[in-house]
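Recall the central idea of this unit: under ordinary conditions, the amino acid sequence of a chain determines the structure it adopts. In this exercise we apply that idea directly, starting from the sequence alone.
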Amino acid sequence: MKLALKTHRVAPIGLLQAGLAALAALVGGHLVTLPGPAGEAPLGMFLALLGTLLIAPALVRAWPSTRTDAVRSAGLLAAVMVSLQIGPALVASALAALLAGPEVLAYVGMLTWLLALQIVGGVLVSATHQGLVPAVYVLICALLGRIDGVVQPWAWPLADIGPAVMALLGMTALMSSLGLLVSCGLRVRPVSAS
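Accordingly, the structure predicted from this sequence is:
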């Protein structure tokens, strides 16, 4: 277990996640002007993208490159490590929600939603390129998420649907994607023997 904690860089990533959650509690609700028809997006969405992208390299580096018996338990171990990595952010956000109000729960929803997209991308497409999925999603939201002042349903992080609903949507997506990770594992290109 010590090797898994070290390989997945749980402690440093957890500290960074807690820091991002604290920053999101302070400035996450500020709106950032975006190019294109979308207009503006919450700064918390970009902080959540950064928090999501922090997890990708450690997850890929720690995943076995060949399909062996060890891979079967690697999915469960990876899901536990991802949970431990975002745990400090969830705790910090819960404390901030108790102290400052529920607005910080919107950050939790966006973080868990983007992380779920990243995990699904790693399982279905490629573990190496899993970080592109949430980054492209945020870019598309920024460019096309709001048309004629109306937020598109797929771009719900831009909508004002309430922090509790955002957290519920994100956590549901994350639990589903972790189940997919445990059952299927990441898609890794086998190392070719030269």
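Residues 69-100 form the longest helix (32 residues).
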